[in-house]
Amino acid sequence: METAAAQAVADAHGVPFLGIRGITDGPGDPLHLPGFPFQFFCYKRIAANNAARVTAAFLQSWGGV
User: Fold this and answer.
1) What are the backbone dihedrals phi and psi of residue 62, each rounded to the nearest 5 degrees, phi first?
2) Are 34 and 28 a contacting pair, CB within 8 Å?
3) Are 17 and 6 in contact (CB under 8 A)?
4) Are 56 and 20 in contact (CB under 8 A)?
5) Cα–Cα distance between 8 and 47 in angstroms, integer?
6) pLDDT in tens, 1-50
7) Among the four 29, 47, 50, 56, which has the fewest Cβ within 10 Å?
8) What pLDDT shows up at residue 65?
9) How far is it, in rounded angstroms, from Cα 10 to Cα 2?
10) Quick check: 51 and 22 in contact, CB under 8 A?
């Protein structure tokens, strides 16, 4: 929801916007952790690392405007 709100503000002001998110929850638990808060803190780090990698790859491949 936060990304959608940021997109709406950018659209309203005619500013280009690209949202890259790290998702911390999904179906099942492949690591079989004992639930909250263990799952959250473990997957938060994985999601943040994945989002950082995607952002870095995008910036390296982007030719700019």
Assistant:
1) -80, 130
2) no
3) yes
4) no
5) 24
6) 899 999 999 999 999 999 999 887 777 888 888 888 888 899 999 999 99
7) 56
8) 55
9) 12
10) yes
Residue 41 to residue 39: CA distance in whole angstroms: 6
d(CA 7, CA 27): 26
- Spatial distance between the Cα atoms of 7 and 25, rounded to a whole number of angstroms: 22
Q: 47 burial class (0-12, 13-18, 19+ CB within 10 angstroms)?
A: middle
Residue 58 amino acid letter:
F
Token representation of residue 62: 């982007």
DSSP code string of 4-54: HHHHHHHHHTT------------SS-TT---STTHHHHHHHHHHHHHHHHH
